[in-house]
Amino acid sequence: MPQIQVLLKIAVLVMSFLSGIIVYYLISTDENAKKKSSVEAIISLTINFIIYIWLGKIIINITKFIRDPLSVLAYPSNADAVYIATILLFINLLYRKFRNDEQLSTILFAFIPVFLISSFVYEFYQLIVERSVYNWLYLVFLGLSSLIYVFVYGKISIRRLSVGFGLSILIGQFILSLLHQLTVFGYRLSPFYFAGLALLGLMAILMTKRKV
Known about the structure:
The protein is mainly α. It is 81% helix and 2% strand. It has nine helices and two strands; from the N terminus they run ααααααααββα.
């Protein structure tokens, strides 16, 4: 049943996400209070992103949603909902930055290892339990990236590490999406999506350097 599939996917996502948080807590050299603050911010943004995905699904299927809301909510979202959610999350981040003067860089520093590990655990589950092999290249990429991140952590500044890995992940996803139908947490996303995020990241880096 679609409802059971949705609940199972949520359970796998939560398990993967918790794995990422645990690894972040283990490798991070920050004080516990700062770790807790970063994790709370990531959880908050993740919940917002999930809500935005649901909103995106409703917007895409607004006519059907008006006629039969449950039929829309019961089925999984698609890539279009993720694109809408990404735009809404970007607006949310801008609001937090300029209205609350929040340091988004600290969230990024914690987000990179959480994303890497949670993505690896999710894809590993898909390979071992679901017997899904079409994303094996992405699994290898995530595994190598995670190992390199843990090995390099503490040897260079956290800012350079996070920026470097953030861009590397997006570039890797872009290349893999060109080679085959890459999925990220079950969503088949366009190469232009990763390219756009990478360009936004580069623009943010250039703007930050100009201010300095």
